[in-house]
Design a protein that fits this description.
The chain is of the alpha+beta class and 199 residues long. Helices cover 20% and strands 47% of the residues. The protein has a single domain, classed as Distorted Sandwich (Ganglioside M2 Activator Protein, Chain: A), CATH 2.70.220. Pfam families: DUF1091.
Length: 199
Amino acid sequence: MATLVPKDQNFFQKRRRVEIAKEVLVELIHSTIIYKTLSIECNPNPKILTNVSCRLKPINWQKSVCIWDSDILQPLKNVSVNFQLLKMNGANKYLPFLINTTLNVCDLIGKRSSSAYGRIIKSILKEMSNVDHSCPYTGHLSLYNLYVDERFIPFDPPIGRYKVILRFREGYPYVDIGTTVLYLEAMEKRERRGKVTAN
């Protein structure tokens, strides 16, 4: 019986080096993509939300954060959010891209839901808002320093422009609370050049 022996004795060592190089390359690519918020649009329902302030605050040329404040006029007992992601194509039109899901925020905060997108939204709400308890919600609602953090993204989307639509609804049948639209750009991280001094 013949045994198969590689012609090159270092075959497995070379193969392992290639695998390590691939892992390093993937890590470098992941760490060099940033997500910049370009603009934000907020369309609240004036029967439910009042004193709405929705703005974008630039931090540096690669990062800007969203600040959103409002007062709730009536208690929100069963809030759900529809999360939709669209990508700009070559004809400058936004087309659906990978995600279109609806989640119940009360179930997320009350730890009754365990979907992947739910865990991401729960982490964002816990870190960047005053939504820290289960339903009902009353009083003042704020999101502060909200930005797309790379650690919340479970995959590396292609470089380009994206549109994120968040539709907030109350109860069933749905009553519209408001819609927020974020325009983002996934781009390569570039180091800023230092000042050039004349000699």
